[in-house]
Amino acid sequence: MTETLLSPEEVAARLKLDDNGPEIGAQRVLRMARRKGWPCVRLSGKLIRFSEDDVEEIIRRHRSTVKAEEQVVGLPGQTAASRARAS
Q: Which of 9, 18, 52, 84 is the most buried if burial means most Cβ atoms within 10 Å?
C-alpha cells in the first residue's frame, strides 16, 4: 500500500499558511519544517514532501494545551526576565 505524499503547497493550504499565495505559503512551510524539525519525507536534497501522518504530528505538536493553573503569573508590572530570575 502506498501512502500519498503532500507537497508544501498542499500542507500550507491545510495549515492555512497560504494567505499571501501558494508560493509564499510553500516557502513558509519549508522554512518552518527546517527550523522546527517537522517530520517530513526527503526525496532529494531540496525536495521534501509530507505524509498524512506527518501533517497530523505537526498539528499535534503545535496545539496549545496549557491549562490555566499551569500558566506562570507574576506580580503586576513584573517583566518576563524578572519572572524568569525569580523562579
A: 18
HEC letters along the chain: CCCCEECHHHHHHHCCCCCCCHHHHHHHHHHHHHHHCCCCEECCCCCEEEEHHHHHHHHHHCCCCCCHHHCCCCCCCCCHHHHHHHC
Query: Which tens digits make up the pLDDT trace of 11-37?
Result: 999 988 878 888 888 999 999 999 999
Rounded to an integer, what is the distance from CA 30 to the centroid of its chain? 10
Q: Would you state the cell numbers that stand for residue 33, as one nine-digit string?
A: 519544517
Cβ-Cβ contacts under 8 Å for 36 (sequence gap 6 or more): 61
The whole-model pTM stands at 0.65
